[in-house]
Amino acid sequence: MRAMNDLDAARDTLAALGRGFHAHGWVPATAGNFSIRLDNGQIVMTRSGRHKGRLTAEGFMRLDGLGQPLDEGTPSAEAGLHVALYRRWPEIRCVLHTHSPRATVLSRRRGKHVTLADYELLKAFDGIDTHEMEIELPVFDNDQDIAALGARVNTWLDRHPAPPGYLIRGHGLYTWGRNPEATERHVEALEFLFECELLASR
Ligand SMILES: [Zn+2]
Fold first, then answer.
1. Which of 28, 48, 119, 144 could bond 74 through an S-S bridge, CB–CB 3.0 to 4.6 Å?
2. Which keywords does this chain's UniProt record carry (predicted)?
């Protein structure tokens, strides 16, 4: 991606991610939402109800750093969850939310967290340079009240080391990173690890 203050580059990057994720079946039927934070602090966010495999420039809108719309229209219903992550960590620049079958099924089979231990691919996450460790992804019960869900996420994140993502039960994955490439890598690595967990528990 070019400079992070480039609105067109942000939209192009997210549209390309949407095509790839849709081809994998990770954002079916308008599900999921994506965002990038620009250098000026504005958040470029997918609009509500857009097909993520066919995003055009018109499928995005800008929010300010507090989540207030800067363009006309309706942002994704879950925009508040993106904004909360950006407010928590100034260094992150991209948030990706997917609804894959693996994330959906695994989150229904686990309790309050998914533990990923001793996988070589854990090295895909920033700050991890060995497979000899485990990470804990929290699983939050789904809620149509996004503010209430966001409050539960925030309370958990206040009390734990930063995970590379979190799951919402029967719903999907949120992950983030210091740029879109790192965040895409997190989605791919977590999808792989979710598949391993499901294969191992058959
Ligand atoms: Zn969702």
1. 48
2. Amino-acid biosynthesis, Lyase, Metal-binding, Methionine biosynthesis, Zinc
